[in-house]
UniProtKB/TrEMBL annotation, chain A:
Top-level taxon of origin: Bacteria
Membrane-spanning parts: 7-26
Family the entry assigns: Belongs to the SusD family.
Location in the cell: Cell outer membrane
Protein name: RagB/SusD family nutrient uptake outer membrane protein
CDD domains linked: SusD (cd08977)
This protein's UniProt keywords: Cell outer membrane, Membrane, Signal, Transmembrane, Transmembrane helix
Organism, scientific name: Candidatus Opimibacter skivensis
From TrEMBL, chain B:
Top-level lineage group: Bacteria
Taxonomic source organism: Candidatus Opimibacter skivensis
Lineage, highest ranks first: Bacteria, Pseudomonadati, Bacteroidota, Saprospiria, Saprospirales
Position of the signal peptide: 1-22
Name recorded for this polypeptide: TonB-dependent receptor
This protein's record includes keyword Acyltransferase: no
Family: Belongs to the TonB-dependent receptor family.
InterPro entries: Beta-barrel_TonB, Beta-barrel_TonB_sf, CarboxyPept-like_regulatory, Plug_dom, Plug_dom_sf, TonB-dep_OMP_SusC/RagA, TonB-dep_OMP_SusC/RagA_CS, TonB-dep_rcpt-like
Length: 502, 991
């Protein structure tokens, strides 16, 4: 009795021990049991290993140009709205921080600066990752060089925008380690320029011309795009000879031409067209959430009210509307007025009692699309051939090639004129200063509401002259450079210094 | 009889010496009040394994083996009786329904303990004492039942649970408690039918919760479901109730005429020449709310023998929402059973399976609040009204309800555990417990093609379906040693090893352009395949742990508990994977000391103190340390504008992340006074949570989209848990209870070099400011100083710029002469400083009455929904008093659409205090003398009101509303599904 009792216990013990053994076998190799990885998702330790990874990492850099930070309020806010081209728009009290940009009552805590800064540095982060990691991938060499060239172009372009807004910048060329987060300082403008120049020169070497891309890659950065931004950089540095040289290279490449109809540039038909040197592709799909290829760019500027196409921000200003030469059809192609029939003839814009003296940016208008209001399909135009021709005119005028300057500006005017010979006559002025003024004003008329104006005023050194009289809040020279976001100053504990006056 | 007692019995059996002396005793056990026999009383001869139970007539026969036998009579809910036989062979034993069960057995983590031996802060709520509210789940039924447990029924969505905070909000992250249901660990207790609950134990302090280590920091709620009680036949009972719910109140908004008049003032002209023609207009709340039925039925059977015991229940709960088209129903089956395989081996299981169906209504609360009352739901042609005239995107809620309600979810959940208990050698018990939790959910949402307006339309009909699967298992091995020396030293040692794994997966897709809208066509295959979208996601995690606990009691007076848990989690990298969570506590049953005999009114008195360290694993995401590559970052290229896949690392991760940890101290005293008629329990606690996982702001130039999360912040909660009850038994029995839970919450530290976090941005300005020294998510904004009465006043006062007479004048708090963001200040806390409840019960001649009152005070509520004015929405009623040149209001500004008057200010901050009659019940139980002829042992009818009376200062539906899981953003009412009130009538029957 007692014996069998003990045996029974031993049996139980065996049972338990074998159970425990199985248990520890399953979970006991504890580290394997506990090593878990995200599912259905690449992780960084296995990324940048294949050609596809290289392509994807590059595409992701383009993608961020469609982010809110890079194409919505922050972007139009500190390019168009802050300039004399446009007002905030929308109902008077909607998005007061954008109103502060319009009337120069902002300070360094205005979220537009922080968002624009953040968006561009996030793009730079992605570009840095790609530029550093793609060279180590075993893949098609030509493609590898091209992808790195695309990323260098995009990185340089981000820095180019930032340096024009803010001046000296933290120059981030690789992902930072955690002990470097708070210690960066501002690199002087001249060195930022050098860095941009080198990136763009590398990109010009690495990138194909627009026509050399396979059709499916239409919209990627090209040799022409890199030359265009480099030409602008030289113009900013007042190196007009080099500016003219790089514009000339684009013109002589034969890759681009002006579209016969000015207004077509801003319609679907003009997207990635003959006149387009660089634009960010976007497409609307009918999705319940923000579409994977869409942007908020069209929504924020769309007609507010009836038809209900958007929020109605970025109102073409009275100053802009009155700046055109008499009869210049580009004004009509730039501005949507109340009572106007929309470009597709679909409907008439109704009066909206919520909006003061409503006007809308026609260049951001898109017809009804499957993305609903908030998933705009419009490509974001960055660089047009007309822009390069006007830059070429400006550069050539500065270095004394007056006739060339006249040729180029007259090409742009002729296209705008179309068949109406009563307007926009060919220019014949040869006085350098007078011609400069004409080039400047034509540049405004041609490129209005395309987010160039603030940069142009900056390049010409005219921000104070133009904005001062218009905006009582404007303070010179303080407002010529925008404030570094206050959060960057605070977080860096003084390593990042504010621009003067803020 | 449940397993707790069996444990105790088995323990006693091991002490038994063999003996040959026997004697037979018979008797009957009666209720001392009703004189009715009690069925199923356990009778045990002390210090032996001899025992029996009473039969249907309350009778028993037992053969005894000791020469001077002592019998112990036990029955749940009654005070145990210990009887020396003194030679009697025929007994009549009367048992008293316990006013308070002094020797109550309390379920603690991985075991049970006598309440008198507890050294930690553990509160017990018996299933029958849960709030009798109309609800599907235990969470809501816990409101006001436990000191230190703040329960906020967050939403009126059918089937919704509640937000539960134990001893304050201890983290900036997930602050939900852990649930342990019959030994199976989960964060979702929605499956438990309140009627299946035997008891709910809340482990509040570190000593009690530390055995759950890395998941104990927010407190642990242990739910024990009903177990079988051995008796000679099954005990069958049924219950059902049916009720009707409706909205607790309607919001006061402008009617048609008032709106038209306000609009005229806004425009500054007679836009509507005669506003009165609009009359009352449409009350959009009437368009979306309804009276809705709720019903619940349960049938259960319970029984067993000395070889097995079982408890079966089937429950069907059905609730229509007070918002049209919303519905929830659940069918739950539960089988708990235990089998004695050999004298030393027991096998048992607690298994439940529930099936859920849900109809989801679109979110129309906000649009009904905003929709101008001058529109009818449908215009004269029968089409839904298009309100775009007044500006942007207000969706017609009637149209949303019509077009967007084809949204059905269903699901099932198999939840439970299987265990084996082996009584090894003397004093040693081994338990192996396997828990499982399998969840399946599927959703179908069909949105037809429709167009109400440009902002309320769907150009292509679309069907979206999704399937979610979750699968979790836990396997625990524990070994318990339990021994008593010389009757003075009682030692229990627990050691264990556990492992668990959780996996989840979701799969779904959508297509457009269906050939029809008939239900049988609404499957993806019928849609246009060129429009298809699909997704699949998955995740997993694992945890292994060692647990240790020692309980030591000397003479039942001096108590010591030490516990330790080591957790290893897959969420962290190897170096940080292991966390240790120790705790210790002491108790002194001071009432047992001889010098306390001079206070005869004091039945018992215990003081106790504890200290321990707990973790909060839920604070981190599942893979917080892995650099995840984000895909879907498409580039758009080519003449056809194709989406080209894009992917990269967009945010920096932190491989050094580790547990969020909290340190808690607790000091408590428990007293029983005047024969247990007064019970008092007071605890003071201090909980410091540190290494709180928080995203630390880094400069934007680093380029990381999200700030990397690190272990950084510290939050302190300090408070009191006070429970006092008075019970009086007898023919007329009654009880009163009061629970008070004051708590103060304070942020001690945020990130390195960073002492503030702004959150809850409304129109670009933060409504909360989490800052060192203040509660988490403290409200922040401008203070209103008054209304500008004249242009002169505007000119002379500090202002933002652009103000006109009638506008709000904000306070220049920093006295710099202008109103800027620097004038924003702390406005109040969203966290109640005191939550309280009161319970009153009464029984007399079969009539029972019970009322539960709950309340909170000291918190503010931000009426965030009122601050959104992107267009001419309807206004709240107070706008009729608006400032006009003729009516120079001192409090209500002139009418505007957004703008300066709508900046985040104390104008929208309201007192969140409330007191609510959570439930009130009146019941009648028919006398047993009548029923026994019909073989019915109990028949009760009752009527219950849920939330039928509330006194609140807040203008919204309720100061209790749904908030997201973000602790920085609570107390902001954006207009969610409001809680309802209900009246239900029911019947309970037992055979």
């Amino acid at each position: 009795m007692k014996k069998s009792f003990i045996l029974a216990y031993i049996g139980q013990v065996k049972f338990i021990l074998s159970g425990l053994f199985i248990f520890i076998f399953i979970t006991g190799c504890s580290n394997e049991f506990l090593d878990r990885k995200p599912k259905g998702q690449l992780t960084f330790d296995t990324f940048f290993e294949t050609q596809d990874h290289a392509i994807w990492a590059t595409n992701a850099v383009y993608q961020n140009f469609r982010s809110w930070q890079m194409c919505a309020f922050p972007w139009i806010g500190i390019t168009d709205i802050i300039s004399d081209d446009s007002d905030k728009g929308s109902s008077p009290n909607d998005a007061l921080y954008v109103l502060e940009l319009d009337d120069f009552t902002f300070n360094s805590t205005n979220t537009a600066f922080q968002q624009a800064w953040e968006g561009h540095y996030q793009t730079i982060f992605r570009a840095n990752l790609a530029i550093i990691n793609i060279p180590g991938i075993d893949m098609n060499e030509a493609l590898k060089n091209r992808l790195v060239g695309e990323c260098k172009f995009l990185r340089a372009y981000c820095y180019f925008r930032l340096v024009q807004w803010f001046g000296d910048l933290p120059l981030i060329t690789r992902p930072l380690n955690s002990d470097e987060y708070y210690t960066q300082t501002r690199t002087p403008v001249a060195q930022i320029y050098d860095f941009i120049e080198q990136d763009l020169l590398d990109a010009i070497d690495a990138l194909p011309e627009k026509s050399d891309y396979p059709s499916a890659d239409l919209g990627r950065a090209t040799k022409g795009a890199a030359r265009g931004i480099l030409a602008k950089l030289y113009m900013v540095k007042h190196d007009f000879a080099k500016g003219a040289e790089y514009c000339e290279a684009i013109i002589q490449s034969g890759e681009y031409s002006l579209l016969p109809r000015y207004a077509d540039n801003f319609l679907r038909v003009g997207e990635q067209g003959a006149e387009s040197i660089f634009e960010i592709g976007a497409v609307a799909v009918n999705a319940p959430v923000a579409g994977p290829g869409a942007t908020p760019y069209n929504m924020i500027q769309g007609v507010r009210g009836v038809p209900n196409l958007g929020w109605g921000f970025n109102r073409p200003s009275d100053n802009l509307v009155s700046s055109y030469e008499a009869g210049d059809p580009r004004r009509q192609a730039t501005v949507i007025y109340e009572g106007e029939v929309l470009p597709d003839g679909s409907t008439i814009v109704q009066h909206n009692s919520e909006v003061l003296n409503a006007r809308y940016n026609q260049k951001a208008w898109v017809p009804p699309h499957p993305g609903l209001q908030d998933n705009g399909p419009g490509n974001i135009r960055i660089l047009r051939y007309a822009d390069i021709l006007l830059l070429a005119a400006e550069a050539n005028n500065e270095i004394g090639n007056t006739s060339k300057a006249l040729d180029y500006i007259n090409m742009v005017r002729a296209r705008a004129r179309g068949t109406n010979n009563f307007i926009l006559p060919n220019l014949t002025i040869t006085d350098k200063d007078a011609l400069r003024e004409k080039i400047y004003s034509d540049r405004r008329s041609e490129l209005a509401m395309e987010e160039h104006r603030w940069f142009d005023l900056a390049r010409w050194g005219r921000i104070a002259d133009v904005m001062g009289p218009l905006m009582p809040g404007f303070v010179a020279p303080k407002n010529i450079l925008l404030p570094i976001p206050q959060s960057e100053i605070d977080l860096s504990g003084g390593a990042i210094q504010q621009n003067p006056g803020y | 009889m449940n397993s707790k007692y069996l444990h105790a019995i088995f323990f006693l059996l091991t002490l038994m010496p063999l003996s040959a002396w026997t004697q037979t005793v018979t008797g009957v056990v009666l209720d001392d009040k009703t004189e009715l026999p009690i069925i199923g009383v356990t009778i045990q001869e002390a210090s032996t394994d001899r025992g029996t139970i009473t039969d249907v007539d309350g009778r028993f026969t037992i053969t005894l083996e000791k020469p001077d036998p002592v019998l112990i009579f036990r029955y749940t809910g009654y005070t145990a009786v210990e009887l020396k036989l003194d030679g009697r062979t025929e007994l009549e034993v009367k048992m008293t329904e316990a006013a308070f069960l002094i020797d109550e057995i309390v379920v603690v983590g991985y075991g049970i303990q006598k309440k008198s031996d507890l050294t930690g802060a553990v509160s017990t709520v018996k299933g029958k004492d849960l709030a009798r509210v109309a609800t599907s789940n235990v969470e809501q039924a816990l409101q006001g039942k436990v000191a230190g447990v703040y329960v906020s029924p967050s939403s009126g969505t059918p089937g919704a649970g509640a937000v539960i905070r134990i001893r304050g909000t201890g983290t900036l992250n997930n602050a939900n408690p852990l649930y342990v249901i019959d030994g199976m660990i989960t964060y979702d207790a929605s499956l438990v039918n309140p009627e299946d609950v035997e008891s709910v134990e809340v482990l509040k302090d570190a000593s009690a919760a530390a055995i759950y280590g890395s998941r104990g920091a927010n407190g642990v709620i242990i739910i024990t479901t009903k177990k079988g009680i051995p008796r000679d036949r099954a005990y069958i009972s049924g219950s059902t109730y049916y009720g009707s719910q409706q909205i607790t109140k309607k919001l006061a908004l402008l009617n048609g005429a008032e709106f038209a008049s306000a609009y005229n003032d806004l425009k500054g002209n007679a836009f509507f020449p005669d506003p009165t023609v609009f009359g009352a207009g449409t009350d959009w709340q009437d368009q979306i709310y309804r009276m809705a039925p709720i019903s619940n039925s349960t049938i259960s059977a319970n029984g067993g023998s000395d070889q097995y015991s079982y408890s079966f229940s089937g429950n069907y709960f059905s609730q229509d929402g007070i918002i049209k088209n919303s519905h929830y129903d659940r069918l739950t089956l539960r089988l708990n059973a235990e089998y004695k395989l050999t004298p030393s081996i027991k096998l048992g299981h607690n298994i439940s399976h529930s099936t859920i169906r849900e109809d989801a209504a679109p979110d129309v609360v906000g649009s009904a609040y905003r929709m101008p009352p001058i529109y009818a739901a449908r215009d004269s042609t029968g089409d839904f009204s298009d309100p775009t005239f007044f500006g942007l995107a207000i969706a017609n809620p009637a149209a949303d309800l019509f077009y967007k309600s084809n949204h059905h979810n269903s699901g099932s959940r198999l939840f439970g555990n299987l265990y084996v208990d082996i009584n090894l050698f003397k004093d040693f018990t081994f338990r192996s417990n396997l828990g499982i939790d399998r969840v399946k959910k599927s959703s179908r949402f069909f949105e037809p093609k429709f167009e109400v307006s440009a902002s309320q339309r769907n150009l292509n009909d679309r069907l979206s379906v999704g399937i979610d699967n979750g699968n979790e298992w836990i396997w625990e091995q524990t070994l318990t040693y339990d021994h008593t020396w010389n009757t003075d030293h009682h030692l229990t040692v627990l050691t264990g090893y556990t492992a668990e794994e959780r996996k989840f997966e979701s799969l779904g897709g959508s297509r457009e352009n269906f050939p029809g809208t008939a239900e049988e066509l609404l499957y993806l295959s019928a849609g246009n395949d060129t429009t298809q979208m699909n997704y699949q996601g998955a995740g997993d995690e694992a945890l292994t742990s060692n647990i240790y606990r020692i309980n030591y009691a000397y003479k039942n007076r001096y108590l010591l508990t030490l516990s330790w848990r080591t957790d290893r989690s897959s969420r962290f990298t190897k170096a940080n994977r292991t966390g240790n969570f120790p705790s210790g506590s002491i108790g002194w049953n001071i009432g047992e000391e001889s010098f306390m005999k001079q206070f005869p009114w004091l039945d018992r008195c215990k003081v106790r103190g504890s200290f321990g360290i707990l973790g909060n694993q839920a604070a981190s995401s599942t893979y917080p340390s892995t650099g995840a590559v984000t895909s879907g970052l498409y580039g758009v290229f080519g003449p056809d504008e194709s989406l080209n896949q894009g992917a990269t690392l967009i945010s920096l991760s932190n491989a050094n992340l580790k547990w969020e940890t909290s340190r808690q101290t607790d000091v408590g005293i428990e007293m029983g006074i005047l024969d247990g008629s007064i019970e008092l329990e007071v605890d003071w606690y201090n909980r410091l949570t540190y290494d709180i996982i928080a995203a630390v702001p880094i400069p934007d130039y680093v380029g990381s989209q999200d700030d990397p999360v690190v272990n950084t912040a510290k939050v302190n909660n300090q408070g009191w848990d006070i429970t006092a009850t008075y019970r009086k038994g007898g023919k007329l029995s009654y009880n009163f209870g009061v629970i008070l839970s004051p708590v103060t919450n304070k942020v001690i530290k945020l990130a390195e070099g960073r002492n503030e976090i702004f959150s809850a941005f409304l129109q670009g300005e933060p409504a909360t400011h989490t800052i060192v020294g203040l509660p988490i998510g403290a409200f922040y904004g401008y203070k209103v100083a008054g209304i500008f009465q004249s242009q002169e006043e505007v000119d002379q006062s500090p202002k933002i710029g652009g103000e006109k007479p009638g506008d709000v004048r904000y306070q220049d708090t920093n006295r710099d002469g202008v109103i800027t963001g620097d004038d924003r200040v702390y406005l109040g806390s969203p966290i109640p400083t005191l939550s309280y409840s009161m319970t009153a019960g009464l029984e007399w001649n079969g009539i029972d009455f019970n009322a539960d009152v709950v309340g909170a005070s000291g918190n503010k509520v931000f009426n965030a929904k009122e601050t959104f004015r992107f267009a001419t929405y309807n206004w709240e009623q107070h706008v009729v008093d608006r400032w006009t040149p003729e009516n120079q209001s001192l409090t209500e500004p002139r009418i505007t659409n957004g703008g300066n008057n709508y900046r985040v200010s104390d104008r929208f901050l309201e007192d969140g205090s409330f007191i609510r009659l959570r439930s009130v019940t009146l019941g009648y139980t028919l006398p047993k003398t009548i029923l026994s002829k019909a073989n019915i042992s109990k028949l009760r009818f009752y009527v219950t009101g849920t939330n039928i009376w509330t006194k609140q200062k807040y203008s919204g539906y309720s100061p209790e509303f749904a908030n997201g899981s973000n602790s920085y953003e609570v107390g902001l009412d954006f207009g969610g599904y409001p809680v309802s009130k209900a009246i239900q009538g029911g019947v309970e029957i037992q055979f």
